[in-house]
């Protein structure tokens, strides 16, 4: 059996994640209990209303139950980040600032990945 290295894993990841912007909303039990369904619906509607080429997806646990609802955002030119305690107003800011203006909403970031 072949031993996988970092390059192999990056090729797999690249083939699974097209090079486009996306939003993932954590929809585990704790996320749903904290209001993630409403955040997901708002983000989906707002992205569609603005005609943005961004996929809004549901995902499982993002690992920080204390900060639910959690929203992970990937936008070209910016680090991939996870926003916590997202409500409708913060979701609006994420769309306007992060996705449209390409500016992070810094005071709501719980985690980020500099490799993007």
Q: What features would you describe in this structure?
A:
- This protein is an alpha+beta fold and 116 residues long.
- The protein has a single domain (20-113), classed as Glutaredoxin (3-Layer(aba) Sandwich), CATH 3.40.30.10.
- It has 4 helices and 5 strands; from the N terminus they run αβααβββαβ.
- The protein has a 5-stranded mixed sheet with strand order 2-1-3-4-5, with helices on one face.
- A hairpin with a 5-residue loop joins strand 3 (71-74) and strand 4 (80-83).
- Helix 3 packs parallel to helix 4.
- The chain is globular.
- The termini are far apart.
Defining traits:
Glutaredoxin, five-stranded mixed beta sheet, 116 residues, alpha+beta, single chain
Q: How helix-rich are the residues, as a percent range?
A: 25-40%
Find the count of extended strands (DSSP E, 2+ residues).
5
Report the β-strand fraction as a percent range. Answer: 15-25%
- Overall mean pLDDT: 89
Shape: globular
In total, how many domains does the architecture comprise? 1
Spatial strand arrangement across the major sheet? 2-1-3-4-5
Helices and strands, in order, run as HEHHEEEHE
Low-confidence stretches: none
Structural class: alpha+beta
Give the CATH topology.
Glutaredoxin
Largest sheet: number of strands, sense, barrel closure: 5 strands, mixed
CATH superfamily: Glutaredoxin
Summarize the structure.
27% of the residues are buried.
Layout of strands and helices, then pairs:
Elements: H1 6-16, E1 22-26, H2 29-34, H3 36-50, E2 55-59, E3 71-74, E4 80-83, H4 88-100, E5 109-113
Parallel strand pairs: 1-2
Antiparallel strand pairs: 1-3, 3-4, 4-5
